[in-house]
Amino acid sequence: NLLKSTTMQRIDLIGNLVTDAEIRTGKDGNEFISFRVAVNDYHGEEKRATYYDVSYRKSDVIKHLKAGLRVFVSGRLSINTVVKDGKTYQNNYVFASDLDLWLPPRD
User: Fold this and answer.
1) How many Å apart are CA 31 and CA 101, to the nearest integer?
2) How many whole angstroms separate alpha carbon 81 and alpha carbon 67?
3) Half-sphere exposure of 101 (CA within 13 A, CB side)
4) What is 15-55 written as a DSSP string?
5) Taking phi first (over 0 means left), then psi (-120 to 50 degrees means alpha), and beta for anything else, what does residue 60 get?
6) pLDDT band at 6 (very low <50, low <70, confident <90, very high)
7) Is 0.85 surpassed by the pTM of this model?
8) Contacts for 88 with CB less than 8 Å, ≥ 6 apart
9) Which of 49, 47, 66, 57 has its CA nearest to residue 94?
10) What pLDDT is recorded for position 1?
11) How large is the C-alpha radius of gyration of the chain?
């Protein structure tokens, strides 16, 4: 068996939640968890953040997904480009297959 045109973009991220996670409903009626992750990058003294909108299967993990939490996310990357008012914006989406929480140590 030969595979016809198959492509895949996979991404691994370590970053911090920008917002608390929410439960959303897709067009197919299935619920999923949605949250935004910021990944910081440094260029000399300059700090830049890249933002990713993440979707993950619905689970009890949502109770831990609060703004500021550090997470590891792995999944499929989709990038959309939007032109608005003459400016070009890039939207980064990750359809996560793996999610690990980096919970702070307890005192």
Assistant:
1) 21
2) 26
3) 14
4) EEESS--EEEE-TTS-EEEEEEEEEEEEETTEEEEEEEEEE
5) alpha
6) low
7) no
8) 81, 82
9) 57
10) 46
11) 16
DSSP 56-92: EE--GGGGG--TT-EEEEEEEEEEEEEEETTEEEEEE
CA distance 11 to 95: 10
Residue 12 corresponds to which amino acid? D
Choose among 52, 56, 51: nearest CA to 24: 56
First CA to last CA distance, the chain: 56
In the predicted structure, residue 107 carries a pLDDT above the cut 60: no
HSE-CB for 42 with a 13 A CA cutoff: 2
Percent share of the chain, pLDDT over 70: 89
